[in-house]
C-alpha cells in the first residue's frame, strides 16, 4: 500500500529519520531547506556582504553544504560571497580522489575553490606522517593540522567566516567523546553553533540540527555528486566506540541524537573547575591554551624524529629529547665534526623516511 | 574451530599471570587477595580498612548528616544496597571516634508488579527480604511499588494517615503474624492493575524503565516523609552512576545529571537522597560482599534477559562495562566529568521551576537557536500543524488552540479540532502536560499511548502549575516585583 505524503497527500517516498513522518520528495526538499534556513536565521550565522569559506572535503556533508549554501544564498538573498576551501592532507588513494569531486563541484556550482595542502603548510604529507607514527594516533595529527589549515586557507582567501558540514550526529558523537575523555573545556564548547568568535575566524555549523541520514537522503534524491570512501588511515578506535554507541542509540530511539545535543546545550561547567585559558602560541601565534600550540608540538616532534612528542605525556618525550640533544651535543664537541648534526639522524625511526631531515624545523605563517 | 593448537597453548602458558595471587598487599606486604581500583592489591584486612574508610569519607566530605539524624536506607536486596547496609552496620559498631552518627532504618520496595509476579511469588520474596532485614536489628519497612499511584500531589494537604498497605515493624512480630501481614501487603489492589496498565502503555522499554524509577523515587520520598525521615540513602555505585550519566545524556536529561549523581540529591525540598556508595565501582562492592559474606538476593527486573539493545539504559550499561574492561579508567573519568557539571543558570535553587514528573530543574526555556526549538520547527515544517503558518503555533500557550501538537498520533484520538476524546472523563492533553515537564520527561511521555494512566501526582501537579501560571498571567500587570 502506498503511503501518502503527510504534507501534500501525494505518494510519499521516504520517512524522515528526524520526525518519522512520511514525505514525498519535493516536500522533503522544501522541509530540509527550510530547516537549514531557519537554523541560519535563528542563530544569526551570517551578515550581509560577508565572505564565507565552505570547508569542502568532497564528502556528503560538505557537498550538500556547498549546494545548499549557494541555493539559500540566492533564494533568501543572504548577500554572501561563497568560496570553497579544501585541505589536501596528502593521502594517496583517498584525498586525491575526493579533491577531484570538489573540483567537479566547483564547476557545477560555479564557486571559486582554494586548496591548501599540509605539504606546503607543514612540509609533511599525511602519508609521510603515517610512515613515521604508524596507524595509531595518526588521526590526532590530521585533526590538529586540518583545523589550522582551514583557518590559514580562509585567511588566504580573505574570508570572514568558515562554515563546516558538521551534522547533528557528529556533534552528538563529540559530546559523548568529551564525556568519555573527561574533556570539560571542549564539552562546554562543542555544542555551540558558532565557535572561535573571539579568536581567529568564527566557524559555524549550519547542519548542527540536521541528521546525517537526512543529508544522505537529500544528496541521494538530488543526485548530488559526492565522494564516499572512508579514509584509508581512519580506524580511530576510540571514536569508533562512541560512534557505534550513538548508532545503536539511534536505533533504539531515533530522537536520541537531538536529545544528546539538547543535553549538551543545557549543561554547563561548575565555576570552580579549573579551565584552560586561551592564549596564543609563542611560536606561530595561533590560538592555544598552552605556550606552544598543539600543531607546533606535533610538528616539532615530527621534525626531531620523536613523533610521539605531542601524543600522550609530553614531559616524558621532552626528557627523551633532552637526552638525545645532550648526546648529540657531546658528539659535536668531542669528535668536532660538522656543526649541524641533526637529532633526526640519530633515531632509527626517521631514517626510513627519505628527506625527513630536510624539512624546516620551524615554519612561519 | 575446536582444534587444539599446540603453539597457542604454549603461548598462553608463557603469559605472566596477572592475578592477585602473585602479588603482595600494597599496605602490609601480606599476600594480596583482591585488586581494588585499577591495580591496587590488598590483603583481606587492608581491603576492609580501605573500603570502610572510603565509605566513611564519602559521608564525611559531604557534611550533610548531623549527629542523630534519621536515615532511611533503601534496600533492594541487591549487591550494592546489601553492601551499604553491611557498611552502615559496621560503622555503627566502630569505636567512638570512627562511629557513624546517624540512626538508620531499612525500607524495601517490592517491584514484583513490574515483572508480573503473582501474589504468592511476591509474598515469598518479601518473606526472604524481611528475614535479611530482621537480622540487621534496625527498624524496617516494606512497601509495594503500586502504592506510588496513591501518592497525592505535593503541596496538597499533608496526608497524615498511614496510607496503603505498607507494612512496618519496629519490633519483632511473631512469624505467623508476619507471614499474614506480608500476604496482605501484596494483595492485588486496584492500583496493581493500574500500575500494570501504566507500564503496558509505555511503548519502549526505555520509557518503562524511566517510569519505574520515577515511581520508585517518588514512593521512597513519600514513605520517608510519612515515617518522619528527611534523608534516604540509596545504594547506587559509581559504575551505575557513570552509566547513568551517559544514559541521561542520551535521553535528553543532561540538565539533571548533576542532581542525579550528586552525593546529596536535593531536588525534593524536604527529603534529601544520599548516595553513599558512589565512590565504589560495582566490582569492588561485589568483592566486598564475597570476602565478607554479605548476602544478597537476586531479583529480576524489566531489563533482565532483555538483551543489550533493549533500552537506552541496558545499551549504555553494556557500553560502559565493555569500555571499562578495555580502558580501566572509563568509569572514573565519566564520573569526574559528571561531577564538574552543573545545570545552566541554577544559581538560586529555590527559584527554579521544576519538572512535575522528575522534579529536576526545568530545562525547556531555551533560546531560539536550540535543539528544542529546532525539533519543534522540524515537526512543524513536516506536519504543518494547525492552520497558522507561524512557528509559534507549535509553542501555543493557550490550551484552546492546542491541537495535540508535538504528540505522536497515538496519543490523540485524531479529532484534529483540539478535542481529544481518548478518555471520556478528564483527558490529559500532551500539550498542557509537556509545559510542566522537562525535556527528558517529555520524551518519555511521547512514548506513552495513554497519558491518563500517568500517576495522579504528575497530572495533578502539572494541572496545578498550569492554573497557577494562568492566575499569574492575569495579575501580572499589577505585580510589583518578581517572585517565584
UniProtKB/TrEMBL annotation, chain A:
Bias kind Polar residues: ranges: 353-365
Gene Ontology CC terms, in alphabetical order: cytosolic tRNA wobble base thiouridylase complex; mitochondrion
Annotated region (Disordered), positions in chain: 335-365
Domain 2-thiouridine synthetase TtuA-like N-terminal LIM, chain residue ranges per copy: 5-28
Comp. bias (Low complexity): 342-352
E.C. numbers: 2.7.7.-
Database matches in NCBIfam families: TIGR00269 family protein
Function per UniProt: Plays a central role in 2-thiolation of mcm(5)S(2)U at tRNA wobble positions of tRNA(Lys), tRNA(Glu) and tRNA(Gln). Directly binds tRNAs and probably acts by catalyzing adenylation of tRNAs, an intermediate required for 2-thiolation. It is unclear whether it acts as a sulfurtransferase that transfers sulfur from thiocarboxylated URM1 onto the uridine of tRNAs at wobble position.
Protein name: Cytoplasmic tRNA 2-thiolation protein 1
Lineage: Eukaryota, Metazoa, Echinodermata, Eleutherozoa, Asterozoa
TrEMBL record, chain B:
InterPro entries for this protein: CTU2, Rossmann-like_a/b/a_fold
Cellular localisation: Cytoplasm
GO annotation terms (biological process): protein urmylation; tRNA wobble position uridine thiolation
Domain of life: Eukaryota
Pathway: tRNA modification; 5-methoxycarbonylmethyl-2-thiouridine-tRNA biosynthesis
One Pfam family hit: CTU2
GO CC list: cytosol
Record-level Gene Ontology MF annotations: nucleotidyltransferase activity; sulfurtransferase activity; tRNA binding
Gene3D superfamilies for the chain: HUPs (3.40.50.620)
Keyword set, alphabetical order: Cytoplasm, tRNA processing
Record family assignment: Belongs to the CTU2/NCS2 family.
Function per UniProt: Plays a central role in 2-thiolation of mcm(5)S(2)U at tRNA wobble positions of tRNA(Lys), tRNA(Glu) and tRNA(Gln). May act by forming a heterodimer with NCS6/CTU1 that ligates sulfur from thiocarboxylated URM1 onto the uridine of tRNAs at wobble position.
Protein's name in the database: Cytoplasmic tRNA 2-thiolation protein 2
Species for this entry: Patiria miniata (Bat star)
